[in-house]
Specification:
Elements: H1 27-37, E1 41-46, E2 54-59
Antiparallel strand pairs: 1-2
């Protein structure tokens, strides 16, 4: 995925392929919202093996129970 789309994929109802009826643009925005609600963050980066695709990285705070 080209770097210019990395922020767009987290926006509600945004998809990279407008011609597909299977994409709603809700999935990654929901994931991001849930991670942020837990005090974390999610980012994209290039794969370390230089293969096609991207790497999703996220972190959340450990909460004591």
């Amino acid at each position: 995925m080209p770097k210019k789309y990395w922020k767009k994929v987290f926006e509600m109802f945004e998809t990279l392929h407008k011609n597909s009826n299977n994409n709603t643009g809700v999935g990654l925005s929901t994931v991001k919202s849930n991670i942020e609600r837990l005090g974390g963050s999610i980012t994209l980066s290039n794969r370390i093996d230089n293969k096609k695709g991207v790497c999703f990285k996220f972190n959340i705070q450990k909460k004591d129970i």
